[in-house]
Amino acid sequence: MKIRFLGVFFLMLCFHQSFSQREWANPIIKDYGRILDLEEVDVRPDASMEYKIVIELIHKMDNPERINFSATNVARLINLHAVGGVSKDKLKVAVVIHAEATNSVINNEAYRDKYDGKDNPYFPLYEQLAANGVEVIVCGQSLNLYGHDKSKVIPQVKVATSALTAVSTFQLRGYAYFKWD
What we know:
Largest sheet: 5 strands, parallel
Number of strands: 7
Helix content: 25-40%
Distance between the termini: 44 Å
């Protein structure tokens, strides 16, 4: 029993030491999407390519005081490509938001009305994404279904006819498609 415990303890110690030697990075989106800058990997992004990615974001709004991981994962995607050597000008990302995630793009006044006086925690994330060239788009159909109109949308977000038409348009323009919920 003691030997097994010592073995497990030793493995945990080794794991902790190797993990703690890696550095966290936020090369482009500074306040979100921290990633590990790994040196020894077998597959990296191709720095000579232009990356075009459309992300369909439909996450739940379970905790109105915290940002859902799916939303911050957009920042991770951008930071991961940057650490992998892809320059900012070779990375084009569009995020198409609909379903319940639509509530993440409303201004503080509308957010407070919907979520018992809470400020919208997504606003700074979308602000940083837009400032770094990400097109943040909300489905106009979902916007109306969730009781909002364009006047309630934060300034960094564009309104599309629908998520369906926005995603299909980006895909036909050659964008790789991801769906996060």
